[in-house]
Amino acid sequence: MQNNHIVIFTDGAALGNPGPGGYGAVLMYGQHRKELSDGYRLTTNNRMELLAVIMALKNIKVPGIEIHVYTDSKYVCDAVEKRWIYGWRAKGWAKVKNVDLWQMFFPLFEQLKPKFHWVKGHAGIVENERCDFLATSAAQAKPVKIDTGYENLRDNGPLL
After folding, report:
1. In angstroms, how far is CA 12 from the centroid of its own chain?
2. CA-CA distance, 12 to 26, in Å (whole number)?
3. Could you report the per-residue pLDDT of 141-155, keeping only the tens digit for each?
4. Which of 41, 95, 133, 147 is the most exposed place for a label (fewest CB within 10 A)?
5. Are the C-beta atoms of 118 and 72 separated by less than 8 Å?
């Protein structure tokens, strides 16, 4: 592993979608490695996919370093690579699903400028499989943490 960039793998899971969910992330920099995961009592897969990226980016301690994010989420990867997030922001985030998370993600994205790469899930990619394990385990652990963005939207009207 080279020391000149950070490699991040992420994954999200929801059992039932919506249902109990979790995220997993693996961050690697040189010889350093950090794993992140957490679970929520009620959420969706897409929310956990995006939250995994957000939590990983929040853990970056080296400003200005090149970052590569590997995800099996077309939802997250396409939103960035196809530049949908810029259109969403220009339109004031109107009618955007998971708006609370995209608004949390966008400043991190602009500050850190990570490059996104889509990888096929369940294809034997070691770190992607590890993230899947972390996310699924967190979802299966009977989490009690509340995904307030999801539950507040659900309880206060239709989800966008």
Report:
1. 7
2. 12
3. 999 999 999 988 765
4. 95
5. yes
CB within 8 Å of 90: residues ≥ 6 apart? none
Give the residue numbers marked as catalytic: 11-12, 49, 72, 122, 132
pLDDT in tens, 67-95: 999 999 999 999 999 999 999 999 999 98
The answer to whether the beta carbons of residues 76 and 49 sit under 8 Å apart is: yes
Nearest to 33 by CA among 143, 145, 121, 134: 134
Rg (CA), the chain: 15
CA distance linking residue 112 with residue 5, whole number of Å: 12
Tokens linked to 113:
């400028």
Do residues 142 and 20 lie in contact, with contact meaning Cβ atoms separated by under 8 Å? yes
Look at the alpha carbons of 63, 69, 75, 81 in this order and tell me if their dihedral is positive or negative. Answer: positive
Residues 6+ apart with CB under 8 A from 148: none
pTM of the model: 0.93
Task: Name all contacts of 125-130 with Cβ < 8 Å and 24+ positions apart.
Answer: 125/9, 125/70, 127/7, 127/9, 127/26, 127/28, 127/70, 128/9, 128/11, 128/70, 128/72, 130/9, 130/24, 130/26, 130/35
